[in-house]
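Journal club side-thread
Mid-discussion, someone asked how the predicted structure for our own chain would compare to the paper's figures. Pasting it here so we can look after the session.
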Amino acid sequence: MNNSLTLRHLRYFIATAETGKIQLAAEKVHMSPSAVADAIKNLESILGIDLFDRHRYGVILTYDGHRFLNSAQRILNMVDDSIFAFQNQKKNTEGRFILGASVSVVGYFLPIPLGQFEKIYPKVKVNIVENSRDALEEKLRAREIDIAFMITSNIKTAEGLEVETLFRSTRTLWCAESHRFAKMDKVPLAEIAKESYIMLASDEAESNANQFWKMFALKPNVRIKTQSVEAVRSFIARESGVAILSNILYRPWSLDGTRILSKQIEEPIPTMNLGVVWNSNRSLPLIQQQFIDFLKQDSWRF
């Protein structure tokens, strides 16, 4: 057995962690399920730890697996950043632009890609303006900001704006490990409506949630409203309720180290979409287009 850690190990491990199933991970990396499973076992042997708990529905990261996931992602980010830098050869590019971002984006999505981008383009200055989606749209039309990186799910009328959705994140049910939903493969929305619900109230999360509840003629039993995702995790871990949130926000552990599960929902809940928006009446300067191209990479995404 090969005892050398390779980038292949890391890519297969990350794909498995993100999908929760060997079969889905294999499809994502275009390999056979047996090749992915063997690579994961080999990686666990090299590290001397269990990265996943196996169960009938798939796999769940262990505590050590979650810690190693952060390291694996950083390693691949460094590799992909280097490839991007050499392919573009723009180290001497200079300039500045104003980037608008909504609250959730600034708090959970922006720091990683922006930090990586600034390492590749050290002579480019990016100024950040945080605001609501509506305000950012108005600032784009007024040319007070150059680009906006934000949740695009609710942009219905984009007059004067160009919208490019970069990816769509599935919404899942979050519950405690001991919750009755933990043993279910898929959870019906009608059953979720019977439970105490923790409502995230920041960055249009509440209005988005109310829309999909209304689609199925149901209403959540809201016990707690909070603008903090960490508070949502903590309340769920302490069995105070459940929540439906985007997978991109999901972490399997609360701040105190208690496990949180992510379960599929039976009904087709709309995705949370994240992307870039700019004024369609102006052409993007090269450095702004390069920033958008960088955001399209998979390497920085959680």
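Post-session note: Residues 211 and 270 are 9 Å apart (CA to CA).
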